[in-house]
Amino acid sequence: MDNFKLWQRYQDWLYYNQDLGFYLDISRITFDDALVAELKPKFDRAFKDIEALEGGAIANPDENRMVGHYWLRDPDLAPTAELKQDIIDTNNSVIEFTKKVHSGEISPPSGGKFTDILSIGIGGSALGPQFVAQALAPNDPPLKIHFIDNTDPAGIDKVIAGIGDRLNTTLVSVISKSGGTPETRNGMLEVKKVYTDNNLDFAAHAFAITGKSSKLEAIADRDGWLAIFPMRDWVGGRTSELSPVGLVAAALQGIDIRAMLQGAKAMDALTRKPSLKDNPAALLAMAWYGAGHGRGEKDMVILPYKDSLLLFSRYLQQLIMESLGKEKDLDGKVVNQGIAVYGNKGSTDQHAYVQQLREGVNNFFLTFIEVLEDRRADFVEIEPGITSGDYLKGFLLGTRTALNDKQRDSITITIPQVDERIVGALIALYERAVSIYASLVNINAYHQPGVEAGKKAAASVLNIQRQVVETLKQASSPLSLAELASKAGISDEIETVYKIVRHLDANQRGILIQGHIGLPSTVKASWKG
After folding, report:
1. Whether residue 16 has pLDDT greater than 80
2. In this structure, are residues 475 and 500 in contact, taking their beta carbons and an 8 Å threshold?
3. Tens digit of pLDDT for each residue in 261-313?
4. Is residue 304 within 8 Å of 344, Cβ to Cβ?
5. Beta strand 479-480 pairing with 524-527
6. Predicted pLDDT of residue 490
7. pLDDT tens column, 344-370
8. Which of 67, 117, 320, 343 could form an S-S bond across to 313 if both were Cys, CB 3.0 to 4.6 Å?
9. pTM of the model
């Protein structure tokens, strides 16, 4: 397609909203009028699905739950007066708690003010807060944030070491809807031990964000933690950034959470419009559908040309892949839907994997995120009439053209700057696009049986470990792996038994190994305690 036709297509499909200063360009995605016509009845259904969702329909049948993250930024939409008031009261409590921490009214037992936050959570309880902290936290925040988002002992140790002698002025946020999420529980217990070992009162530093009547709420209430904020059952982890899960940490860092909520509310209003060309989330969903033929045949590469948006792709990985990665559609048909997401930032990626994107296997579509504002300080000319920001813009536009020349699909989102209102709008845009795309391909975006399957499998491994240890404790002589598995009653899990023995041995956890650990057939194990 020549440049004139490309320019005409760009004008035909460019979306712009003046209030947000937001542009969406899907003109470099391969689709035609026939696809638009084919999708019209599906979009009509998707717009009705949006209306039902926001009206309080049960959208997560596995747990009999509504999906109401939209109400968080517009409480007037909540289906009951009680829910509306609860959202308003909760947001006010977040702001009040923040004011008390910043002023020193809520302070560490050692005196002074809190200086840091240690956030313990996983998945949506970590990815959203991490993205927002990277994007929006000031250079010198009132409280500096740290994250424990895994059950990796060495990783936990490194985070604690980074806090150093400020442990006594560090607030600890524990985020878990049920209170039983293993990774979060493990992190909490590890951190609690560190506080105890340093003669510090953990409860005087901790607050919880959790579900009503959860195990974590009971612990926080019993031990007298500083505060308890709600995680509602109608907000999923991957759509929880604009709930207390994300708002408390953001506010404590000095981020304007009301502006984030306002930005999301503004984008929600735009993405409710029941017209393809007037709805940016619908346009985005159609671009995804066109690029991957409605079957996720191509990966989504997110490439923001701004350092502060570095973690946006990680945040979107969970939102998109957990929502869309489904084995069956709503009719019970096996469809194996999903879109894989990855990315880093421009222009870094031009020195990493743009070579493959341009000339390798054509199994992706790219989303450029362009930020019009270079910096808030005076510009610096690095060549006559040219700034570093001009170079960044040149790399973006040049890469877009180079990819288009090779028939590689791309989307371009343009925003005026990275601030609270715009970040809230981006979060809302992708939440809605996921919902619309799910409707187009006839799947449920709001349940995740695969995640639960993984948790159950992990619990099974730990049960096998308990059986292995108990069997070795009772054995009078060393056992081969086959003997050990047989005596433990798990002969069909011999490979798992080997890997458990290997792990316990590597960590000096009471296992004595005879033979060569790298040759499973020679291994005999006994318990030395």
Report:
1. yes
2. no
3. 999 999 999 999 999 999 999 999 999 999 999 999 999 999 999 999 999 99
4. no
5. antiparallel
6. 94
7. 999 887 777 888 999 999 999 999 999
8. 343
9. 0.94
Contacts of 338 by beta carbon, 8 Å cutoff, 6+ apart = 296, 321, 324, 325, 326
What DSSP state is assigned to residue 376? S
- Choosing from 5, 333, 351, 456, the catalytic residue is 351
Decide if 245 contacts 225 (C-beta within 8 A). no
Q: Is 96 a catalytic residue?
A: no
31-62: burial string, b at 16+ Cβ within 10 Å, e else: beeeeeeebeebbeebbebbeebbebeebbee
Q: Is 244 left (phi over 0), alpha (psi -120 to 50) or beta?
A: alpha
Are 475 and 453 a contacting pair, CB within 8 Å? Answer: no
Pick from 136, 379, 155, 387: which is nearest to 254 by CA?
Answer: 136
3-state secondary structure string across 176-213: ECCCCCHHHHHHHHHHHHHHHHCCCCHHHHEEEEECCC
DSSP 456-519: HHHHHHHHHHHHHHHHHHH-SS-EEHHHHHHHTT-GGGHHHHHHHHHHHHHTTSSEEEES-TTS
| In contact, 306 and 134? CB cutoff 8 Å | no
Q: Is 503 a catalytic residue?
A: no
Q: Which of 322, 420, 431, 493 is catalytic?
A: 322
Give the whole-angstrom CA distance, residue 470 versus residue 96. 51
Paired residues of 149 in beta bridges? none
235: number of Cβ within 10 Å? 25
List 364's β-bridge partners, or say none: 299
C-beta neighbour count of 287 within 10 angstroms: 27
Catalytic residue among 455, 473, 503, 516: 455
Is 351 in the active site?
yes
Q: What is the pLDDT of residues 461-501, one digit of tens each?
A: 999 999 999 999 999 999 999 999 999 999 999 999 999 99
C-alpha to C-alpha distance for 173 and 228, rounded to whole angstroms:
10
